[in-house]
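Troubleshooting entry. The earlier prediction with F7E gave an output that would not parse, so I re-checked the input for stray whitespace and re-submitted. Clean input:
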Amino acid sequence: MPRVLITGVTGQDGSYLAEMLIGKGYEVYGLIRRTSLVIDDRIRHLLDDVRLIDADLLDQLSLIKAVQTARPDEVYNLAAMSFVPTSFVQPVLTGEYTALGVAKMLEAVRLADWPIRFYQASSSEMFGKVHEIPQRETTPYHPRSPYGVAKVYGHWITVNYRESYKMYACCGILFNHESPRRGLEFVTRKISHAVARIKLGLQKELRLGNLDAKRDWGFAGDYVEAMWLMLQQAEPDDFVISTDETHSVGEFVRLAFECAGISNWQDYVRVDPNLLRPADVDILIGDSTKARTKLGWKPRVTFPELVEMMVKSDLDAEARGNTRAAIQATVR
Ligand code: NAP
Ligand code: F7E
């Protein structure tokens, strides 16, 4: 039975990845950090099958012990401070987690006396103020947030360990991917959740920032499959994972309201200047030809299907209870 260690197993991607690897017969270990309230909503349905190990990206020794305990064949490094606006408020902490945390995980893996394949969660945020359209593996990076800058470090330190120590280490440059398990602070889930509550008469308006920003949005469940495929190849490499389509935040809003049967969405949406970022990424659109050709990967869920899936899930859950219930509902 192959063994896997997932950092960030309690997050959106970690929960889908753990589910998929359990299905493939892996023995799954996941890192969890101590909190005063247990926040394992996304993996509660998996707790019989995932062995949780206490560790934190800030604590090198805890990461070394986690690797020695799990003795994994594969490590997926998904843990990070992943919310862009917070990175402007806490740039140093973001660097500690999202940049240096990667070096700490790589060191923990390098100390192992057995071969381990390593996946690093790189991000399309590294392209930032884009140098070409669409963005591919060779597009230069120009990050627009402390989060993006930290991800560039995480990316290059992974490439450096691959080149320096001949480690099997891959970076997945993933474009935005969403799901009913997405955190409520990210724009897609903020929209689907608000639309459901407006439809049910529980909320009056939806406050948003930049409606013109364009993103290449896919479904998280499809993207974790690409992560796994990267670690099954003969040679390690880096891949862009995207749908190769772009849509504006405004388009997402309109479609989400339409899914709930509301056509006059403008009556409910307010633009709040406080939600604008010091610097934003205007447009992201990937070119995933390399992944499609070499990994045989392609996304299954389309943009309208994704919006509908998220709105329906929030409508169901909100009709039954509160937001916590909403997250739990999506993992059943
Ligand atoms: P997420 O839902 O925010 O999950 C982040 C995970 O990291 C959570 O499990 C969190 O634990 C954990 N974590 C944060 N700080 C930690 C620390 N100091 N020690 C240990 N664990 C820590 O993010 P996601 O959407 O699943 O994304 C997964 C990864 O892919 C992240 O690295 C993200 O930056 C990257 N990425 C995401 C996207 C996207 O569109 N989703 C695109 C490109 C790249 P808690 O549950 O305790 O907070
Ligand atoms: O913003 C605009 C906002 O926070 C998307 C992370 O997973 O993907 C994610 O980063 C766009 C931005 O995601 C609101 O200005 C408008 O242009 O959902 P988001 P993100 O910043 O693209 C990348 C690939 C990652 O790696 C990250 O970890 O939407 N926007 N109004 C808003 N955004 C938010 N959050 N809230 C608003 O009210």
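This one parsed fine. The pocket of F7E (ligand 2) is lined by residues 82, 84, 123-125, 175-176, 185-188, 190, 208-210, 213, 215, 249, 275, 277, 280-281 (CB under 6 Å).
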